[in-house]
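ARCHIVE CARD
Drawer: 12
Card no.: 0347
Subject: one protein chain, sequence and derived structure
Cross-reference: see card 0346
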Amino acid sequence: MEEKKSIIPKEEKKPIIPKEEKKSNNKLLIILLILLLIGNGTFIWLWLSERGRANTEVIIKEQITVERDNVKTDLLELQEEYATLQTNDKAMQVELDAKKAEIADLILQAEKHKDDAYIISKLRKETTTLRSIMKHYVVQIDSLNTLNKVIIAEKDKVSADLSTEKGITTKLSKDKDALQSTVNLGSILKATKPLATGVKFKSGGKKEVETERASRVEKIKVSFSLGENKIAKRGEKPIYVRIVSPDGKEICKSPDEGNMFSFNGSKGYFAGREIVDYKNEEITVDVFCESANAFIPGKYLITIGCDNVIIGETSINLK
């Protein structure tokens, strides 16, 4: 018998790929993978950045809303406080009515610009200023009320004394002196609406520019009004401005006797002086104050003196 030959299939020959081609394909895959990773990373970074920006905008908007609500609340409280101020002084009442109208307008602005951070910040500063002014009015009104009570009391007392025996001349003389003291108190001028600003000069000193920078300030300008006072003495009146620097020193052009003035029984250096012709009517006064040394940052305390008494106070902060 013939031996059966086993039939074994021949192995199929695989195509031989050159090594250089393999390396090229691998490099291409790696480059594609890197580009894919970079693209995905960039997308994730952009997405996270956009989400962070959106979250930041939401937080800022919420903060502005909270600040707007706080400012509006302060304005409403301030409106109620101004409403309680009452005076018989017509000029002061006109000023109070103007401030009330200003507060009402600020409340409307807070509603209108509720998302505007700049406007809200500006309203905050104006609210602070109005509150400071209100404190000044409270002091003035209390002083006027006290003065009116004293005058009325003295008038009643004098009237009662005049109805008694004419022989009590000593008592009448004392009453007359007391009434004269009251009149003298009423004749003291008041510096209303005092405002201090730092200024520098341009165009050879012809143009003044306001600045809060201590390093740029050449002089401090103090502006105020001398109110109407029919019983005050008419004529020329020297107005003195005393300024105490943040380090507790009086500033002046030169620390000598010629730059000193008297106030409330004391003496001090004045930083500026202006002589005004007072005619018992309201007059606006500007006093430019200078220092022998450079101005430094901080709060400057300012007092205004006339006829040996302090007639007004204010302050200024330089940066």
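Annotation on reverse: Residues 17 and 23 are 10 Å apart (CA to CA). Confidence is low (pLDDT under 50) at residues 1-6, 171-185.
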